[in-house]
């Protein structure tokens, strides 16, 4: 972690609304109805900061967390001594003792892992784990055939100390994709063989697919942070992260002049331009650039949208403030937040809100509210 950059010395300012994060968790927990609601906090809490994120979530009532790697699990354990912590990437070779010390539960996903975990459990019978079944994504998880073979033997749940059986949906963001039902049905069949083990299938988007996708525990990530879970639907979540950039200077430019590297955009009117102190080195996507062929992302100042002009460079962005006559040096311009949804910037850049959030840079002044 880098030292906190003071606001007066930062080109960008990132504000994290912890109340919105807690509200989003409570909102999803209400939507999950009968199921328990965990929180996925991998990727440094989707870019907003692991420790502040989990403190706010625990305050809202969340007691079960998923991270990707054991290093994140150790950080989480240091913050929340009582929480249930699952490691989605499973058991790292030779690391079982560390998992045991910090009470981290691996999400077991392959036969070699299961073998290593079985040996570990002979010495540590109190250790717990989850089992991940691949129901059609072909990323993590035991294949259905492998699972079938294991389940044919006796007492798998006891041998592994299973507290969760899970799978992951590949297309939950597309509600009418046929793979959703196929995965749900395959998961139902496997979990019926482990009737005493709680089951989990739904990520954020899965919660919105309906009650038969929720099982015993739901695992939202992106929706907690205000990102859009479901494609082409109204996003009901509150924005959590607001990114703003400092105006370094405001300048005039004449019609026909071009802006930025590559001279990709020519002005078609007398323009006022504001130069902002954030760029792709801060994780703002270069693909959000504007050109004569293709409009770029929007920024927001004093109640008005201001379009990017020309290319995003490493440390600088140019926006058009011709219509915002009082824009001036030192103003903070919203790059995403309550007025410019992170997913809208992501879409202009050909990516997703997840990537923008988890790419948030290290140079920002970070403010956690309240
Ligand atoms: C990242 C992840 C989630 C959370 O997904 P969102 O789409 O962010 O809600 C849930 N489960 C698994 C296995 C994941 O990898």
How is this structure best summarized?
The protein is of the alpha/beta class.
* Tally of separate domains: 2
Largest sheet: 7 strands, parallel
The CATH class assignment of the largest domain is: Alpha Beta
CATH homologous superfamily identity of the largest domain: Alanine racemase
Helix content: 25-40%
DSSP strand content: 15-25%
How many strands in all?
Answer: 19
Tell me, briefly, the overall form.
Answer: elongated
In the CATH hierarchy, the architecture of the largest domain is: Alpha-Beta Barrel
The mean pLDDT is 97
Q: How do the strands line up in the largest sheet?
A: 3-4-5-6-7-8-9
Can you list the ligands bound to this structure? pyridoxal-5'-phosphate
Uncertain stretches of 5 or more adjacent residues: none
Catalytic activity: L-alanine = D-alanine
Family: Belongs to the alanine racemase family.
Pathway: Amino-acid biosynthesis; D-alanine biosynthesis; D-alanine from L-alanine: step 1/1
GO biological process, one term: D-alanine biosynthetic process
Explained architecture:
Its cofactor is pyridoxal 5'-phosphate. One of its GO terms (molecular function) is alanine racemase activity. Pathway: Amino-acid biosynthesis; D-alanine biosynthesis; D-alanine from L-alanine: step 1/1. The protein is of the alpha/beta class and 370 residues long. The protein has 2 domains: 32-225, TIM Barrel, CATH 3.20.20; 241-369, Beta Barrel (Lyase, Ornithine Decarboxylase, Chain A, domain 1), CATH 2.40.37. It is built from 12 helices and 19 strands. The protein has helices at residues 18-31, 42-46, 50-60, 70-79, 96-102, 111-123, 144-152, 156-160, 178-191, 204-207, 342-348, 353-358, and strands spanning 12-17, 36-37, 39-40, 64-67, 84-87, 104-108, 129-132, 162-166, 199-200, 217-218, 241-253, 258-259, 265-266, 271-276, 298-301, 304-307, 317-320, 332-336, 365-369. The strands form 5 sheets. The protein has a 7-stranded parallel beta sheet with strand order 3-4-5-6-7-8-9. Strands 1, 11, 14, 17, 18 and 19 form a 6-stranded mixed beta sheet that branches. Strands 2-10 form a two-stranded parallel sheet. Helix 4 links the parallel strand 4 (64-67) and strand 5 (84-87). Helix 1 (18-31) crosses helix 3. The longest helix is centred in the N-terminal third of the chain and has 14 residues, at 18-31. It is elongated, with a radius of gyration of 23 Å. It starts with 11 loop residues before the first strand and ends with a strand. The mean pLDDT is 97. The protein binds pyridoxal-5'-phosphate. Pyridoxal-5'-phosphate (PLP) binds next to helix 10.
């Amino acid at each position: 972690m880098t030292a906190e950059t003071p606001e007066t010395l930062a080109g960008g300012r990132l504000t994290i609304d912890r109340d919105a994060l807690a509200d989003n968790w409570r909102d999803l927990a209400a939507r999950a109805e009968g199921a328990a609601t965990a929180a996925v906090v991998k990727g440094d809490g989707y870019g907003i900061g692991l420790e502040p994120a989990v403190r706010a979530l625990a305050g809202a009532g969340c007691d079960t967390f998923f991270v990707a790697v054991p290093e994140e699990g150790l950080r989480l354990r240091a913050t929340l001594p009582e929480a249930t912590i699952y490691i989605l990437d499973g058991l790292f070779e030779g690391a079982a003792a560390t998992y045991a010390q910090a009470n981290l539960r691996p999400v077991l996903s392959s036969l070699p892992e299961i073998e290593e975990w079985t040996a570990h459990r002979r010495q540590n019978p109190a250790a717990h784990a989850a089992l991940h079944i691949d129901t059609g994504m072909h990323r993590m998880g035991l294949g259905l055939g492998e699972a079938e073979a294991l389940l044919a033997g006796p007492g798998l749940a006891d041998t592994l100390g299973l507290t969760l059986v899970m799978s992951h949906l590949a297309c939950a963001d597309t509600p009418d994709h046929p793979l959703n039902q196929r995965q749900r049905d395959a998961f139902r069949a496997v979990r019926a063989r482990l009737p005493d083990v709680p089951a989990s299938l739904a990520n954020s988007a899965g919660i919105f697919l309906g009650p038969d996708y929720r099982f015993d525990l739901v695992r939202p990530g992106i929706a907690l942070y205000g990102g859009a879970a479901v494609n082409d639907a109204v996003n009901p979540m509150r924005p959590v992260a607001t990114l703003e950039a400092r105006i370094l200077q405001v300048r005039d430019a004449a019609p026909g002049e071009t802006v930025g590297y590559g001279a990709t955009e020519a002005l078609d009117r007398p323009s006022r331009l504001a130069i902002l102190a954030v760029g792709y080195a801060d994780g703002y996507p270069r693909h959000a650039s504007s050109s004569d062929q293709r409009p770029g992302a929007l920024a927001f100042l004093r109640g008005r949208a201001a379009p990017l002009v020309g290319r995003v460079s490493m440390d600088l962005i140019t926006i058009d403030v011709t219509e915002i006559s009082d824009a001036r040096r030192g103003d903070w311009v919203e790059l995403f937040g309550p007025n410019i949804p992170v997913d809208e910037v992501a879409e202009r850049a050909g990516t997703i809100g997840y990537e923008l959030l988890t790419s948030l840079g290290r140079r920002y002044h970070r403010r956690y509210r309240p």
